Give the backbone structure.
Amino acid sequence: MMRASALVRLGGLAVLLALCLAVAGCGKSKITKENFDKIDNGMSLHEVEAILGEGSSQGGDGAVVAAQVGVDVTGGAPPPSTVDYLWEKGKKSITVTFRQGKVVAKKNVGL
């Protein structure tokens, strides 16, 4: 059986850990009008992620999954010429379109 002082330390550690997790989860969002305005045509994905953090690639038609099992669903069509990346937090989002690795368009919702 644990001594009372050990239980108090363990409880204190649990509370500290819970507070750390809560603070980390409540960090300031990078999905802001100010950051949206910093994104310019011609920027690379790396430059945009330096402003907004890691984004998620959008779209996809299942071709990657199908290709993993040897099925070509593209019909020989070339890959899409643009790729959209999304950053979102709650009801706010920023979508940036890249062509050949460079920003060609951007849009936002809720900023």
Summary: DSSP finds four helices and four strands in the chain. The mean pLDDT is 77. The CA atoms of residues 6 and 74 lie 63 Å apart. The radius of gyration is 22 Å.
